[in-house]
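Help needed: design a sequence for this.
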């Protein structure tokens, strides 16, 4: 789904994010060159990679990659994993997201 250059803002990003939680048919959304700020990015990230717990990480949308070139770091944060070979392999992406939560907790010496 190509939504680039549509003057989409944070409210639009939040609406897209709420639909992404349930839509696992989309493989790619291009949000390049819109008016989305960190607030919209946070909502999108939570839809495709909610790392607040192991359960939410496992239940995140693992099939959709969000293309957002304004800030490469944000694109990596939104998608959780941007290795080109695994972008559309949902089981691999799901495992990497869960591993990311576990390794983050290990670094912080936290189990919560």
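Sure. Designed sequence:
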């Amino acid at each position: 789904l190509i939504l680039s250059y549509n003057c989409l803002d944070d409210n639009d990003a939040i609406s897209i994010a709420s639909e992404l939680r349930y839509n696992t048919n989309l493989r790619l959304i291009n949000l390049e060159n819109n008016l989305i700020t960190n607030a919209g990015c946070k909502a999108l990230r939570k839809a495709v990679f909610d790392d607040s717990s192991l359960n939410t990480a496992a239940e995140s949308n693992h099939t959709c990659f969000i293309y957002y070139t304004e800030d490469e770091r944000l694109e990596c944060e939104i998608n959780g994993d941007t290795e080109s070979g695994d972008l559309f392999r949902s089981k691999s992406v799901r495992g990497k997201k869960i591993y990311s939560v576990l390794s983050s907790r290990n670094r912080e010496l936290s189990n919560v």
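Strands lie at 28-30, 65-67.
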